[in-house]
Structures are given as structure tokens and as C-alpha cells.
Recover the amino acids of this structure.
């Protein structure tokens, strides 16, 4: 049974969460907000925003990172009987109206991960584009495929059971690099990836939780770990690609 819920990790975005939740009201699906140890000022705004629209709020005692918050949200979705978790960032950068298209694809392909890839407007910083492109290259190397168009977009649908299987099998990242690691490991396990576009806007007054030096260091270490993991799995990954190529040739 297809039963999705939105999972919204939030840290220090109490001022933008209300707008995100308001945009989700027309979707008619449950929402789980995970407060990842925000300070008292933002925590109070987060509580008020959740109470105003009647959504579930899970409060972590301390900040554990975006990945930790998303994992807790997916586990709560599982405990509450949801089949899919639609991860949506709380900073208001993504075009929420795209969610309907993502949910349609998730219902038609219940075991697939539906990943957003950004369509940027002129507000995107050039440094962010370059950094993302470098990560894309590493993901293509570490999966030996082009299946994942963008591994960092915080607008995606996880099939709950397959996602938890990937997480429990060895996802180590608990911060910003989580989004990428789970994509790579999902590819390793043969989980189908569907990529869909989503418009992204970077408000000038917006606040990002991405710490340039700290998070880039974490991402670099993650790519290093995954590279050696890819080398161990490369015979199986190459064989899978060859079989897929043979099937395509036979059907074509």
C-alpha cells in the first residue's frame, strides 16, 4: 500500500519552516518535522509552526547532523506505518509544487528512490555549482554509472524499507554528506534511481547550515571511503552494467 509522509529535517530554520509547512498543506499527506537540536529561539518557532498546522514534531536533544535527523525521520515513518518518506529541506529553496510529480513516480515505482536534481535560477552561488559538479563526478566514479544525476539535492522520496536496509547495512555519514552516501550505496545494492527536476532558489537573506571547510572535509573523506568500497565491488558492478547493456541491446 502506497502511504507516503513528508520528512522535514530542520536546524536553525525556524523562520522558514512555517512557509514550507504551509506549502505542504495542499498535499494531503502527513508531515514529520525533525528538529535537530536547534537553539531555544528557533526551537520555539519550530514548535509553534508545527502546532499551527497540526504536524508531528520529533525533537532531538542535541544537533547530530542532517543525516542523523533524516534517519530518525525515516525510522519514525516506518514505525507509523508509512511506505515512503519524502525528504524535504526546511530552508524553502525548493519548489514544493513539484512534489506531486515525485509522488506519482514513487507510487508507480514503489522500490525506487526518486531524486531531485536542481534547476537553478540566477541566485545560485557559482561556488556551489562547482562544488556540486565535483561531487557528481565522484558519484559517477563510485557507482561506475551515471544513474544519479544529483546526489545532494534535499528533495527526494525514499522507499522506507529499502532505504533503512541501505542505512543499516553501512551508511556511516550523519551530516551533510549523508545525502550522497545513501545514493551511492543504494546504487551498489541495485536500487532503481529515478531523477526528476526541481526548481531551486537561493534567497539573498537565506541561511545555509553548510559549513564550507568542515563539511567539505567530511564529503572528501566520504568519497575516499566510497572509492575503496567501489573497488571491492567493481567486478559485481561491472557485471551488472554489462547485463543491463545486453538487455537493452536485446530489447532494442
Amino acid at each position: 500500500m502506497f502511504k507516503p509522509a513528508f520528512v522535514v529535517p530542520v536546524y536553525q530554520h525556524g523562520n522558514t519552516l512555517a512557509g514550507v509547512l504551509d506549502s505542504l498543506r495542499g498535499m494531503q499527506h502527513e508531515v514529520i518535522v525533525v528538529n535537530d537540536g536547534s537553539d531555544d529561539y528557533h526551537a520555539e518557532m519550530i514548535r509553534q509552526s508545527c502546532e499551527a498546522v497540526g504536524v508531528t514534531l520529533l525533537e532531538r536533544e542535541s544537533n547530530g547532523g542532517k543525516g542523523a535527523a533524516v534517519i530518525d525521520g525515516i525510522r519514525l515513518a516506518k514505525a507509523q506505518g508509512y511506505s515512503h518518506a519524502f525528504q524535504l529541506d526546511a530552508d524553502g529553496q525548493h519548489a514544493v509544487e513539484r512534489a506531486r510529480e515525485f509522488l506519482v513516480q514513487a507510487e508507480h515505482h514503489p522500490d525506487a528512490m526518486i531524486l531531485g536534481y536542481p534547476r537553478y535560477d540566477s541566485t545560485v552561488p557559482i561556488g556551489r555549482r562547482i562544488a556540486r559538479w565535483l561531487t557528481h563526478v565522484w558519484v559517477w566514479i563510485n557507482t561506475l554509472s551515471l544513474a544519479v544525476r544529483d546526489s545532494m539535492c534535499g528533495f527526494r522520496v525514499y522507499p522506507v524499507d529499502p532505504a533503512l536496509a541501505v542505512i543499516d547495512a553501512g551508511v556511516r555519514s550523519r551530516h551533510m554528506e549523508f545525502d550522497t552516501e545513501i545514493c551511492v550505496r543504494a546504487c551498489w545494492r541495485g536500487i532503481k534511481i529515478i531523477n526528476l527536476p526541481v526548481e531551486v532558489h537561493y534567497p539573498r537573506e537565506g541561511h545555509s547550515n553548510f559549513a564550507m571547510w568542515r563539511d567539505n572535509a567530511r564529503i572528501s573523506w566520504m568519497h575516499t571511503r566510497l572509492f575503496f568500497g567501489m573497488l571491492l565491488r567493481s567486478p559485481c558492478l561491472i557485471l551488472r552494467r554489462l547485463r543491463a547493456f545486453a538487455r537493452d541491446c536485446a530489447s532494442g
